[in-house]
Specification:
heterodimer, A: about 850 residues, mainly alpha, B: about 120 residues, rod-shaped
Chain lengths: ~850, ~120
């Protein structure tokens, strides 16, 4: 016995021995009995059909390291070639093994015919899941020569049906085996040589074959067990046109047919409407006409046209314009355009009896005195003719009793309302009883007639009577609305508010809410009126209406004697500013009011502003203003003017900025024209605006000299009097005065005018007078100190006395020249006599001071 | 109270400029020759101008009393017609039925043949 421990492979065999390759390239002849005692070894790879395949697989496994062996794989491959060159059976097995082992090239070496090799390749492709390649290869085989195509493609049906193009090509391959045979014999039994081929072909063809029902019946028999039983019942139901059992799977036509058959039998299919998307439109119409379908579909699986058609038929009022257009239903489009009063859009619709009718109706609605001659549906002619007749009678001052048809048709009342208010529409007692809605309408018209006539008491009485007797809540509420108006116009706003409140307590109505606010505004109770407006604000979703409420609330408050903004108004503005405001002007109005009357809130509130910059600028400016007004901040109005100046100095300032700047300049002008000395506080504001360079020359000159004069008088009037520094004097008085002189003497267009010149002189005079008074006291003080020093000269060192006296002289010496500067700048300017007199007197005083000072200077 | 141009002209709140013109013409008829109606004519003219020159939606006027405030007498009729149901599109319903039945049979046949494919053993080459 030979003990072997390595994996070997048989590469040849004879009657009693096998050639066993176990190491290197040498094979040992091993007796069969010994070989059969050896342990078989599993080799990785697919199951193979022949000896060649076995050796190819083993050699391949050795090459890639999947099999541990000491023999040379080339020897095994050589032996495989020998096996593959054997008889036809060995060659075919080798062909299949070569394809299985992805040795496609080996196939051409086996001596098979090209078509046979093609078949093996096609088979391998289909089985390997490469269906498109398989169908491609099968198409190259002789047509009808390979019946094995049928079972091969039968295994691939799900993949083929998933690709209609492939399915159609596969159908052509199967056709030779399915064609030319009748499906059912004369006695009703299947008469098909190869029924599976016929079923496969029927399934693969792109359009339903004529014998689809019979083929389905036939195919049902090929399933197993419960599946087969269900399939046969279903197929038989299809054949006998009976209702089908529920079928699982995505089978829209089966599902649609099933639902249709249910509806055709008289049952409602509303619950199954979404199953009908594959049903042709004539059958959907059939279901609608039979009453089996009344619910419009929603599912997007429905084709757009069918969906639009069904929706338009079932719910024409609810169908979209797109759906109506797609369904070609001009009648409903015309009705909508008529109701919207859109004559142009109505004219644009294609001619159609319904379109003509609505055009004629619109013409009548525009002028109900004349009934159109053409286009109206027959049923509309008579009632419209009666309306026209009533109106004609009304024009002649006659009252006409209307017919039952007119009394019953509420839509015909609007054109008759004016005639009814005028008393030209009558209604018999019998028709009043039969048509209470019409009677109520006439009674409301009667109340309105009294309202128009100003008969408030009678109108209120009639309206309350109507409200008490009507059974229609809408008429009840409108009657009380008229009663409240009568109360209001009659001077009893409190009652009007109570009446409207009672109605609103039952049924909210935005218009009645507004009316309650209008009435509340007349009670004189501002808080009450504001509360009502807040309700309107909350009720109306429309931003424009909210804006109107905000404006109205502001107006009511401004018209009231109350100087304090009511809390409700403040709260309303808070809410208004916490939501986007489209209108920039309104937005700034709200901000301005908040800055002026609700500064603490605006100073810190979270306010919404649009991103376009303008609202953000406005918010920044008014917030700084609010902070300047709020005690919680140390911000000054100077900073607000700094912000405004910055905005106004931009190359293209927003219009509101220019307006606001004008407003603030006006405010400052008003502020400075008070007794001198009182308006020193505007200094910072004027300074910020002047520094920004946004003031006109005239405004800047006037405001500057005013600031200078106010400061001079203010300092001079203090307990410890002072005067302007020389820098301040130059900045606020001398330079503006010099600028005025330059502009006046320059081009005529630049001349700020005599008015500005008068302001300049007046301010120079006031400031000079203040300085003169201060200088006078300084001279008195100087005299005392001088004399005192002279008196003490005997006891002091002489040089120290002289130094002290010289310092005294230095302190007072500038005053005369400063005072003369005011006078000099006013020369040639429009000067009032009192100021001219002042300049002369102060000039003389200065001369005197100068003479004294010169003498003293020489003395020391 | 704010003067209400609609009430002065006897119009419903929110009436159009055209309606205001008609109402003015009707109410002012003959007033031009009657010295005692000068004030009334002035009121009517003011009201007409108010409506004529008004901008935006009247519903945004919060200062004016609404008459009517409540919609009454709503209902369909000749001048407020309900939607008409469009007719059936036409077409041969019998042919459509035959087509649907055949399409359903074809679909079911495909369903069965596909179901059977899962039961088939791989064919020999």
């Amino acid at each position: 016995m030979i003990l072997r421990t390595r994996a070997g492979v048989v590469i040849g065999e004879s009657a009693h021995t096998v050639s066993l390759l176990s190491k290197d390239a040498r094979a040992d002849e091993t007796p069969l009995a010994d070989f059969e005692r050896m342990q078989p070894l599993a080799v990785p790879g697919p199951p193979v059909f022949g000896a060649a395949g076995r050796l190819w697989r083993a050699a391949g496994a050795v090459r890639v390291g999947q099999l541990n062996a000491a023999w040379d794989p080339r020897v095994a491959e050589g032996a495989a070639g020998a096996f593959a060159a054997g008889d036809l059976g060995a060659r075919r097995a080798a062909a299949r093994d070569a394809l299985l082992l992805a040795m496609d090239g080996a196939l051409d070496l086996l001596g098979l015919s090209p078509t046979e090799a093609l078949w093996y390749r096609a088979h391998a492709a289909v089985m390997g899941g490469r269906i498109d390649l398989g169908v491609d290869l099968l198409s190259r085989l002789p047509n009808g020569a390979y019946p094995a195509v049928v079972p091969l493609l039968a295994t691939a049906v799900p993949r083929l049906l998933a690709e209609p193009r492939l399915a159609a090509r596969a159908a052509m391959l199967v056709a030779p085996f399915a064609a030319g045979r009748s499906v059912v014999s004369a006695d009703g039994t299947p008469d098909r040589a190869w029924p599976e081929a016929a079923e496969l072909h029927g399934a693969l063809v792109p359009t339903p074959p004529p014998d689809a029902v019979a083929l389905a019946e036939s195919a049902a028999t090929r399933l197993d067990g419960q599946e087969q039983r269900i399939a046969m019942v279903t197929a038989q139901a299809l054949a006998r046109e009976l209702g089908l059992p529920r079928v699982h799977g995505d089978l829209p036509h089966v599902m649609g047919l099933n639902a249709y058959l249910t509806g055709r039998e008289g049952h409602s299919v509303n619950e199954r409407v979404e199953e009908l998307f594959a049903v042709p439109v004539p059958l959907l119409d059939d279901l609608i006409d039979r009453g089996g379908l009344s619910r419009p579909p929603e599912s997007p699986r429905w084709p757009g046209g069918a969906r639009a058609h069904v929706r338009a038929r079932l719910d024409p009022g609810g169908a979209t314009v797109e759906e109506l257009t797609m369904a070609g239903f001009a009648g409903e489009l015309a009705r909508r355009r008529y109701l919207a009063g859109d004559g142009d859009a109505l004219s644009a619709l294609p001619d159609d009896p319904a379109v003509r009718h609505y055009r004629a109706l619109l013409a009548f609605r525009d002028d109900p005195r004349k009934v159109p001659d053409e286009g109206l549906f027959p049923g509309a002619v008579e009632p419209l003719t009666e309306v026209a007749a009533v109106l004609a009678a009304a024009r002649r001052g006659r009252t006409v009793e209307i017919s039952a048809a007119l009394a019953a048709d509420a839509s015909l009342r609007p054109p008759l309302t004016d005639a009814a208010i005028a008393g030209a529409v009558g209604l018999s007692a019998e028709l009043r009883a039969a048509h209470p809605g019409c009677a109520d309408w006439l009674d409301l018209c009667a109340v309105r007639a009294q309202i128009h006539a100003g008969a408030w008491a009678a109108a209120g009485h009639a309206a309350r009577g109507l409200a008490a007797r009507t059974g229609d809540p809408a008429v009840h509420d409108e009657a009380l609305n008229l009663a409240a108006l009568a109360d209001l116009e009659g001077g009893d706003a409190e009652t009007a508010v109570r009446v409207l409140d009672a109605v609103l307590a039952e049924r909210p109505n935005p218009r009645l809410v507004v009316n309650a606010a209008v009435a509340a505004a007349e009670t004189g109770d501002l808080a009450e009126a504001m509360a009502r407006l807040v309700t309107v604000w909350e009720t109306h979703p429309d931003p424009a209406a909210k804006k109107a409420v905000e404006s109205r609330a502001l107006i009511l408050w401004l018209q009231s004697p109350d100087p304090e903004a009511p809390d409700a108004l403040r709260e309303l503005f808070h809410r208004a500013l916490s939501r986007p405001q489209e209108d920039d002007d309104h937005y700034r109005l709200l901000l301005r009011q908040a800055a002026a009357h609700d500064a603490d809130w605006l100073a810190a509130a979270s306010v919404v502003a649009k991103d376009d910059g303008d609202q953000r600028d406005a918010l920044h400016y008014y917030r700084v203003r609010a902070r300047a007004s709020s005690e919680r901040y140390e911000t000054l109005m100077d900073e607000a003017m700094g912000v405004l100046g910055g905005l106004a100095a931009r190359p293209d300032p927003a219009p509101w900025v220019t307006v606001e700047l004008d407003r603030m300049v006006g405010f400052l002008m008003e502020a400075v024209h008070v007794p001198f000395g009182e308006a020193f506080y505007v200094l910072g504001m004027v300074e910020r605006l002047a520094d920004a360079g946004v003031l006109t020359p005239a405004a800047e000159i006037v405001l500057s000299v005013q600031v200078g004069a106010h400061l001079a008088v203010f300092f001079g009037g203090q307990e410890e009097a002072g005067c302007l520094t020389e820098d301040a004097e130059r900045r606020w008085l001398f330079r503006p005065a010099e600028r005025y002189r330059r502009l006046r003497d320059g081009p005529a267009d630049d001349d700020p005018g005599d008015g500005v010149g008068e302001e300049v002189v007046r301010c120079l005079a006031m400031a000079q007078l203040a300085l003169f008074k201060y200088a006078d006291t300084e001279f008195d003080r100087f005299s005392e100190l001088w004399n005192d020093a002279i008196d003490k000269a005997d006891v002091m060192q002489g040089d120290r006395v002289v130094a002290f006296l010289r310092d005294l002289l230095k302190d007072v010496r500038p005053y005369p020249s400063r005072l003369r500067r005011y006078q000099t700048l006013s020369v040639g300017l429009p000067t009032e006599e009192e100021h001219a007199e002042q300049f002369r007197i102060i000039g003389k005083a200065c001369d005197g001071w100068d003479g004294q000072l010169e003498r003293l200077r020489k003395a020391v | 109270m704010e003067r209400n141009p609609y009430l002065i002209l006897g119009l419903e709140f929110g009436a159009s400029r055209e309606e205001a013109n008609i109402a003015f013409a009707r109410r002012s008829k003959g007033m031009h020759r009657d010295p005692s109606k000068v004030d009334l004519l002035t009121d009517l003219t003011w009201a007409l101008n108010q409506i004529d020159e008004a901008e935006g939606d009247p519903e945004h006027r919060i200062d004016l009393y609404r008459v009517p405030a409540v919609e009454t007498g709503e209902g369909s009729g000749v001048l407020r017609p309900p939607p008409l149901r469009p007719p059936a599109r036409g077409g041969d319903r019998e042919a459509a039925y035959r087509w649907l039945r055949q399409a359903a049979a074809h679909e079911y046949l495909r369903h069965l043949v596909a179901a059977r494919a899962k039961l088939l053993a791989p064919p020999e080459a």
